[in-house]
Design a protein that fits this description.
26% helix; 7-stranded mixed β-sheet; alpha+beta; 3-stranded antiparallel β-sheet; Glutaredoxin
Length: 185
């Protein structure tokens, strides 16, 4: 399970569109997930220890960001045939268990993950109201273990700034996590 770090934010890159099945039985598009002040696209999965360490914080931050007008969506692009914990059925279970307040979508073809340039789980893409990229960093100082409760909420603070100003912070600390489990060609 190799760790991977996200690249530097490509400020202004447009948010690729998508139409993916959610665990709620609906097909969701990018525009349906967007809020009036922006969009947070999170590439996560069920089995990754880096994601497990921050699941509760992802839920907390998504709730707080939604109140600020930022729409949130989580996408699982892992190859479920090689990683059964990441199957659609298990996605439903995890979303229910953690009461995800955002759509949890399955990118079975992995085309959306490729369009975004996602590299790991978790991988966060924060967009402003014009759907231009403003944040590509970590949630907080957590790694495979949850960081202490008092750590800075990097993702939340950055997206709050995006909601208020349309601009992300110049300084961003990359997210780190398990590599996306790509299908064999």
């Amino acid at each position: 399970m190799a760790s991977t770090e996200t690249p530097v934010c490509d400020f202004g890159a447009p948010a690729p569109d998508f139409a993916l099945a959610g665990v709620d039985g609906r097909i969701w598009t990018r525009d349906q997930c967007s809020g009036p002040r922006g969009l947070l696209v999170m590439f996560i999965c069920n089995h990754c220890p880096y994601v497990k360490a921050v699941r509760e914080r992802i839920v907390r931050d998504a709730r707080d960001l939604t109140a600020l007008g930022i729409g949130c969506v989580a996408i699982n692009a892992n190859d479920a045939s090689q990683y059964p914990d990441d199957s659609f059925e298990n996605m439903k279970r995890v979303a229910e268990e953690y009461a995800f307040p955002f759509p949890y979508l399955f990118d079975e073809t992995q085309e959306v993950a490729r369009a975004y340039g996602a590299v790991c789980t978790p991988d966060f893409f924060g967009y402003n109201a014009d759907l231009k990229l403003q944040y590509r960093g970590r949630l907080d100082a957590s790694r495979k273990e949850t960081a202490p409760p008092e750590v800075r909420r990097d993702l939340f603070e950055a997206m709050k700034q995006v909601a208020e100003t349309g601009q992300g912070p110049a300084e961003q600390i990359p997210s780190i996590g398990c590599s996306i489990k790509w299908k064999l060609a």
